[in-house]
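thread: overnight batch results

M.L. [08:02]
morning all. the overnight job finished for the chain we discussed friday. pasting input first so we're all looking at the same thing
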Amino acid sequence: MNIGLGDRRRTILLIDGDSHARATLRAALEAAGFSVGEAANNHEGERTALRTKPDAILAELMMDQADAGITVAERLRTHGSEIPCYILSTASEVLMGSIGLHEIGIDGVFLKPVDTAIVIQTLKTRLAPRQAEAGRA
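M.L. [08:03]
and the structure it wrote out:
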């Protein structure tokens, strides 16, 4: 089943320095009907997001610099992007900096190891209203 309108599949951009984590999440998302793009660091992720305009972004919090996932979300917001951004992180990282995440454009946090069923259900639920709005336009 495709997630989207007609033949258009919703696209998720995965930004994570761990290639194994990206591959695991990519396989689950594709099996659920999403198209998936990948980036290995925050700089590549920001460029890819601006170029491809994915429907949502899943970004590891700690990559090539501290708070890299948050930095991507903040920079995209300065470019006027409204792409939903979700952070992938360990519990200790989230507890250190969870205050104010929504204010800087973070739509949610998924704890590692990621439960792919929860990620998929969240994305389906959060992206569904955008599908309904697009159908009325």
